Amino acid sequence: MSAAPQIVIASPLDSVATAILPIGAGSIVAVPGGGLHAVEPIAAGHKIALRAHAPGEIVIKLGQGIGVARDAIGVGAHVHSHNLAFVPDLSRTAPPAPLAAPSRRTAIFDGYVRDDGRVGTRNFVGVLTSVNCAATVARRIADHFTPERLMAWPGVDGVVAFGHMSGCGMAKAGAGIDNLRRTIGGYARNPNFAGIVLVGLGCEVNQIDDLVAHEALETGGRLVTLGIQDAGGTRAAIAAGIAAVEALLDRASTARRTSVSAANLTLGLQCGASDGYSALTANPALGRAVDLLVAAGGRAILSETPEIFGAQSLLLDRAVDTRVAAALCDKVAWWRDHANASGMTLDANPSPGNIAGGITTILEKSLGAVAKSGSSPLADVVDYAAPVTVPGLTFMDTPGYDPCSATGQIAGGATLIAFTTGRGSVFGSKPAPTLKLASNSALAQRMAEDIDIDCGQLLSGAATLDQLGEKIFAALLATASGKPTASERNGIGDDEFVPWVPGAWM
């Protein structure tokens, strides 16, 4: 990346640059080898043409095509949605990088080693529900355990309830109930929970006994089940749930952190409220940290299938075998068909905030989304909320909606979430803490209480990509060892449980 005072050029192949600061019409912008005359105002984060483009010519950013010129675009013009068109299956403009053998690295953190050998980064007790009808009971159980009451159980991070909008009025078989059961089962197994109370009503489609059998969960010990109808109603069920949580808290409070290898970490990768800087700073910096985690033997989960559309070739180049490559192609094809059947296109994905921040097409957004995954081989592709067991990088099929995608990752075993943002997302999650990375320093300063790391240092020259990657990796290890994140200090994460439940409700 070469930086000038007002712009950043990500690749020598690029035909556009990104404005670091607002550029006024008539300004002369320094570029390698001379000056560039801005013929119109360019907002910070937006693109300026480095050369002329004929109608239909590919516009290149980050060394890849992000769309084609709708009309002729002159040198120094603003390049955005008014003159840049999305074209599906845009051919690659840069050759694939050779697939390097992963390096090796030693790293440790202090985590909770559970009875099954898996390692958590937090020590929660959870109250899960089989059906929405049990949501209030679950919430009342968790609300009983105020910070004052929890002082009786030192070392416990809290009691958290997760309700959802499904569990009944749905088919007894198929993708909907399978996804819901995998999600609940995955949360029940997540090592950031010391214990779980699973609450149901009693007459729902998603019966607790069927859920337990489907997910091969073991009741007793760290998992207690509770039926509201069997308990005698709302108040009786709340009282029984409180008693069950108290017993689990006794167990949780005996847990102690132990020094373990970073190979025990599973990191979920998210980006939301992105901007034109995201693909230049926060996402590639997180990618460097992911490579360090993989080198230490850990696991990382890239998701949000609609948001890799158009850039999937960059992942296919890194697939470890044809099975993994074919699985990824199948997931992308399903989403293309799903969008078409719904009267949508995948290029409808950039949100109004993304567009205002300088992102024009899904191709441009996808390049940034893929950058979060670093350069390690793609080791596996899994369904939504499926267990992630293979060391290295795994792709999980999820929607692009951040809370829904992160829910699937946590169900798959993520014990940490790293979340990049350019516009200012306030996302957080439990039981897996979320570390927030800002793509630009203005955001990091404006929303300082929500941001953990300022990746805008890359634009100012205060840090290199490698230095930021090391900083993020160190922050991940510190978070895994118990250091609170900004979202944890803000108390975020109780309501961000959003299982993906496709299918009709009846």
Number of helical regions: 16
Strand content: 15-25%
Count every beta strand, where a strand is a DSSP E run of 2 or more residues: 24
Sheet bearing the most strands, described?
Answer: 7 strands, parallel
Low-confidence stretches: none
Compute the CA-based radius of gyration.
Answer: 24 Å
Helix proportion range: 25-40%
Specify the overall morphology. Answer: globular
Describe this structure in words.
The chain has 506 residues and is α/β, with parallel strands linked by helices. It has 16 helices and 24 strands. It has helices at residues 135-143, 147-150, 175-189, 208-214, 228-231, 234-252, 282-295, 312-316, 322-341, 352-356, 362-371, 402-411, 441-446, 457-460, 465-480, 486-489; strands spanning 2-3, 7-9, 16-19, 28-31, 34-37, 47-49, 58-61, 64-69, 78-79, 84-85, 108-113, 119-120, 124-129, 158-162, 193-200, 223-227, 257-261, 266-271, 299-302, 378-382, 392-396, 416-421, 434-438, 453-454. The chain has a seven-stranded parallel sheet, sandwiched between helices. A five-stranded antiparallel sheet has the order 1-2-3-6-9, with no helix packed on it. A four-stranded parallel sheet has the order 14-13-15-16, with helices on both faces. A hairpin with a 5-residue loop joins strand 11 (108-113) and strand 12. Helix 7 packs across helix 15 (465-480). The longest helix is centred in the middle third of the chain and has 20 residues, at 322-341. The protein is globular and about 75 Å long. It starts with a strand and ends in a 17-residue tail after the last helix. The mean pLDDT is 94.
